Amino acid sequence: MKLPGVVLSGIAVASAATVDVAQFVNPFIGTSDGGHVFAGATLPWGSVKAGPDSLSGDNQGGYVSDGTNITGISQLHDDGTGGGASLGNFPFLPYTAAQCANNDLTKCTVDHDRRAIAHDDPTASPGYFSIPLANGVTAEVTATQHVALHRFTYPNDTSQLLFLLEATRDLGNSYQGDGQITVAPNAKTGGTRVTGGGRFIPSFGEGSYEVFYCFDAPSAFLQGKYFKTASGSLAYTDLNATTTFNTQIQNNNPAGVLMGFAPGSAATLNVRMGISWTSSDKACAYAEEEIPDISAFDAIHSAAREKWNEVLGTVEVDATGVSDDTVEMFWSSLYRTYISPTNITGDNPLWTSTEPFYDSFYCIWDSYRVVHPLYAITAPKAQAEVIRALIDIYRNTGWLPDCRMSLDKGFTQGGSNADNLLSDSYVKSITEGIDWDTGYEAMVKDATVEGDFTVEGRGSIPAREALGFVPVGDTNNPPNEGPNTRSASRLLEYAYNDFGIALVAKGLGKADDAAHYFNKSGDWFNIWNANATNTGFSGFIQPRNADGSWYFDPRYDLNNVFRPDHCSPVFGHFDCFLNTGGGEFYEASSWEYSWFVPQDMARLVTTMGGPDTFSSRLDTFFSAGFHDIGDEPGFFPTYLYNYVGQPVKTVDRVDATLTQYYNNSVGGLPGNDDSGAMGAYVVWSHFGFFPVAGQDTYLLNRPYFPKITIRNEVNGAVATIIAQGLSSTNKYIQSATLNGEPYTKNWISHSLFTNGGTLEFVMGSNKDSTWGTGEADLPMSLSTGGFQ
Ligand SMILES: *[C@@H]1O[C@H](CO)[C@@H](O)[C@H](O)[C@H]1NC(C)=O
Ligand SMILES: *[C@@H]1O[C@H](CO)[C@@H](O)[C@H](O)[C@H]1NC(C)=O
Ligand SMILES: *[C@@H]1O[C@H](CO)[C@@H](O)[C@H](O)[C@H]1NC(C)=O
Ligand SMILES: *[C@@H]1O[C@H](CO)[C@@H](O)[C@H](O)[C@H]1NC(C)=O
Ligand SMILES: *[C@@H]1O[C@H](CO)[C@@H](O)[C@H](O)[C@H]1NC(C)=O
Ligand SMILES: *[C@@H]1O[C@H](CO)[C@@H](O)[C@H](O)[C@H]1NC(C)=O
Ligand SMILES: *[C@@H]1O[C@H](CO)[C@@H](O)[C@H](O)[C@H]1NC(C)=O
Questions:
Q1: CA-238 nearest atom, ligand 3
Q2: Rounded to the nearest whole angstrom, what is the distance from the C-alpha of residue 31 to the centroid of ligand 5?
Q3: pTM tops 0.90
Q4: Residue 723 falls within a domain, yes or no?
Q5: Is residue 422 scored above 60 in pLDDT?
Q6: What is the pLDDT of residue 288?
Q7: For this UniProt entry, which residues form the secretion signal (predicted)?
Q8: Among 469, 531, 540, which residue has the most ligand 6 atoms within 8 Å of its CB, making it the best to mutate?
Q9: Theoretical Cys-Cys bridge with 470: which of 130, 248, 491, 518, CB 3.0 to 4.6 Å?
């Protein structure tokens, strides 16, 4: 896709009017090579995410920029996920007369794979997607919160607008039945209404879910067929004006309706598709309320774009002297951070509550690090709702989730990282409507009560209590079998989760609890093997057996030589996931996890042998290829030079990471976007600071814009970041002031965003600048008196 040529310099800063930043968003970034980005039409946190589905092995996000054919345009998606393909329910497909033997509906190819049709280049922008199909029909879609509005423009000579709605299909082909299809005239519009729903299976979780739809076409159909597969072949039944079919389909056989409509003056068919997680009646109510006029495609599209501009508009940047590529990357990345989770407040079928309800936390292991801390400064209202929703999930299911999608419990990836998602908002004074006492209760339950840690809380609580670490093989399954291992990475995460609990305990005045959990956060050290060596460095996080001996995996730690590079890009990433046979580290190596002590980096520096060794060890980590930016544990290490007073090296490292691994092409992401996590890393890096998620610390690199403002939508406070003299060579901070006072620390705290203020840097090319290098300039650590 090509963006229109726009003049980017001199975009108004701090103006009250909404700037059309949607023009800079390229939704196709990350739609191939495993990015799994959803490029279709949605609102910020929209329930409906409508767009085409590609017949591609890589179609987790629906449309894939790999040239594969389109099987349909469906109503729901997830964004950037790993796991199986999510959602993709209730696809539509337009046909022309020629495809259906001169309008014989029984001759249209309905089989999902065989019907897939070629296409030309699509175009997309926030709230809009358009794709020209090889049959001459152009499919466009826009959306409101719960409703997709589709516009199909057929070739001029079309005698009937032929159309498929498959009611029993999603991307994972997971239909379980429990559905029906009711066709009836819509008395209000004089058109055709089809309602129904069905049961499907989540892509990375347990159980099943039901979802419902309400379809409206603007006129009565000229002809209609219900189709259903029976014994391997399709059977057709004529549609009467009012008909109900039961779709207790077995074995993933398709069922749905085919209809032919009369072309109006233009051969255009607008169809409205309301979606609800509660009932088809509710789907119809949403449809009528949000899109009363089915013909108003352009107005709904404009409103969607306006909504995006409003949500994106808490941030403004001055792009003077900044390349078009940087502007496009920044806004596209920020845009993607607001696609998920979905706000389905008021449409929760699971329990009755007046609290907000959000779904598609896919997964918190990914999003707590960068996405939710971003909301804390750019969208604190949404973040407060997310916190309330998580606490309400705890109230009603007994647990905070690590992962949830499609109303179901998802698989826990590591620790109980909702603890740090909550602590992050707590220390950043996100309070609106939040019952923090119950939030704290939920966190303590994670730390003290063992549930089914496949989907909630933590595992190995008694073993850790007894030993101070999670031993290898502490599971009901045989050791090293399947998802129940990850002993080393889980311990590191549990230790940091405990630190989050301590911060909240401290804030709530629970001094004993705070002392207890601060202490538990030191458990990482219990699996630090000072004698493990690799590539010239000694001391690594290594899994441990229950008897205290170090664990060597017989598959790679040959001759009892521990391989800290296993699960890194240079030595095997193949079995480090939530898979049977997955090892003791999850989605990153010991080389990478050995940096993960955000609560006490000062102690880690000492443990590794002091600042010089720490710094050269970081150098080797990057140069030897052990760093993996494609998974979320790879974010934090790029900022760690700040902990040894070398912010200049952080600037170079973040620059190199962005240059090497990110670009604006369809394959421009280093991994699954994971609900905007890869994008959020880009946003933070461009701001010039990075959140140490779960605590009140932002590590400074340098801004990529001469001026950035971030408006706090709750209290109106404006934080302004100015980089005087910024250029491609003047990218190192020489000096700084905060609200006019000299500022030498290489980190900032959240007060800039709650109180407002101005952080101003003088930039230069001098890499020997002493700014941020002193002992007193280092970020907080527990062992040097921080936090407590
Ligand atoms: C893609 O669709 C076109 C028709 O539009 C068809 O001719 C072609 O065989 C399809 N390709 C694949 C790989 O299915
Ligand atoms: C369709 O009709 C329009 C307006 O009459 C005309 O401009 C266009 O060329 C026609 N397209 C085709 C493919 O016939
Ligand atoms: C359609 O209506 C006719 C006439 O009332 C009836 O015989 C037939 O069963 C109906 N078909 C369906 C599918 O309901
Ligand atoms: C979430 O949805 C509810 C109900 O529609 C709405 O009141 C609220 O403003 C939404 N939140 C955000 C952040 O848009
Ligand atoms: C935790 O408390 C124990 C017992 O008092 C003590 O030995 C240990 O050093 C403490 N750990 C940390 C990290 O403070
Ligand atoms: C490292 O090796 C030395 C010498 O064998 C031993 O005394 C020490 O306990 C070992 N340290 C660890 C953490 O295993
Ligand atoms: C864009 O980034 C991807 C992912 O890092 C990389 O594979 C690709 O080579 C890059 N393309 C360009 C043109 O730099």
A1: 13
A2: 48
A3: yes
A4: no
A5: yes
A6: 98
A7: 1-16
A8: 531
A9: 491
